[in-house]
Automatic annotation (TrEMBL):
This is Outer-membrane lipoprotein carrier protein. The gene is lolA. NCBIfam families: lolA. PANTHER family: OUTER-MEMBRANE LIPOPROTEIN CARRIER PROTEIN. Residues 1-26 form the signal peptide.
Length: 208
């Protein structure tokens, strides 16, 4: 999973309420409130990677579950079976076809990306320019010159995130749309934990 998509997950599940508790532009207040008031989300997603001509390079779909703070489960069902799961501290990426699990700490996975700025270490206004593009649609632009993406757009409907767009420096765009979304649902114990299946290769950071 690319780092820009990890930004999406942290944006939805990270400590945004604390991050945005300080001074924010009026354009960001509605977005901040909607995200802070959403404790959990679950549903299905469709993800597309598009080139500069908006031609689809690859497409995938599956189900998702998010729980603040920092927990998420991304189950890819098409075209390949993969899982990306975080318990808020450890990130597991399981590729069934490769029979491989990659293990990283969430901090390491997001190190050097704008997602790290959303963990609560800095004020939003220090790192992003936030604009209301139109009602229910908000744009974020990183201020750092070394940022790995150029812009991100969050779309809301009735206070629920319905789509996200991330534009990278190469002219490619990742768009994720959410459907059949249930808000503030409860998850069974262990839903955001992962145990590697027997026989798979486990690679990653020692001690995780």
């Amino acid at each position: 999973m690319c780092r820009s998509v990890l930004l999406v997950l942290v944006l939805l599940t990270g400590g945004l309420s604390g991050l945005w508790a300080g001074s924010v532009h009026a354009a960001a207040e509605d977005l901040a409130d909607a995200l802070a008031n959403t404790r959990a989300l679950a549903g299905v997603f469709e993800q597309r990677l598009l080139d500069s001509d908006d031609t689809v390079i690859e497409a995938s779909r599956g189900s998702f579950a998010l729980q603040r703070p920092g927990k998420f489960r991304w189950d890819y069902e098409q075209p390949y079976v993969q899982q990306v799961i975080s318990d808020g501290q450890t990130l597991w990426h399981y590729d069934r076809d490769l029979a491989q699990v990659t293990v990283r700490s969430v901090g390491t996975a997001l190190s050097g990306t704008p997602a790290a700025l959303l963990s609560g270490a800095t004020e939003l206004d220090d790192s992003f320019v936030v604009r209301e593009l139109e009602p229910g649609r908000y744009g974020l632009e990183p201020k750092a010159a070394e940022a790995e993406f150029e812009s991100a757009t969050v779309e809301l409907e009735d206070g629920v995130v319905t789509a996200l767009d991330i534009q990278d420096a190469l002219g490619q765009r990742t768009r994720i749309e959410f459907f059949d979304v249930a808000r503030n649902v409860s998850f069974k114990a262990g839903w955001f934990e992962f145990e590697p299946p027997p026989g798979v290769e486990v690679v990653g950071e020692a001690g995780l």
